Amino acid sequence: MRGDSSDDSLDDMIRIFKQIEKELNKFFDEIGLKTAEGLSIDNPEVLSSRSKEEEPLIDVLQEGDKISILIDARGLKAEDIQLELINDRRLRIITPTWSKEVDLRTYVNSSKSEVHLNNTVLSIVLERKTVGQSHG
Fold first, then answer.
1. How far apart are CA 135 and CA 132, in angstroms?
2. Long-range pairs for 79-85 at CB < 8 Å and ≥24 separation?
3. Phi and psi, residue 66, nearest 5°
4. Cα angle for residues 71, 75, 76 (degrees, 5° grid)
5. Rounded CA separation 37/4 (Å)
6. 8, 56, 57, 79: most buried by Cβ count inside 10 Å?
């Protein structure tokens, strides 16, 4: 008897999840949002893919005298990435599929920088210029 009630409970849960999925799909259709073909937790390649036109996620963190820029660099190799510092205040990132300028909101010392590509994250650490250093 115990097995029957467990089976019934599992069937009820599956029915509830299917109803939730149906309602979510209906909602997405109503607002014009398309779901990706094959999107599921069991298919991580679909979840991590990015179209060529899509810009990466970029975080700029200011900690003391350091500015850290973290960039989603999925699919890129170190040789694919070109960095340019413009007027010691803007960073231009150029790759084969996208380019982006980032306002650093402060002046940085271009001679004191670190760049690392670890797995899928490009990390750039720049040092802020002190009050007495020239800008330009």
1. 9
2. 81/117, 81/122, 83/115, 83/124, 85/110, 85/126
3. -115, 145
4. 65
5. 36
6. 56
pTM above 0.70, yes or no: no
Which secondary structure element, helix H or strand E, spans residue 121, and what is its range?
Answer: strand 121-128
**Tokens 């149906």 sit at which residue?**
22
The answer to whether the beta carbons of residues 60 and 69 sit under 8 Å apart is: yes
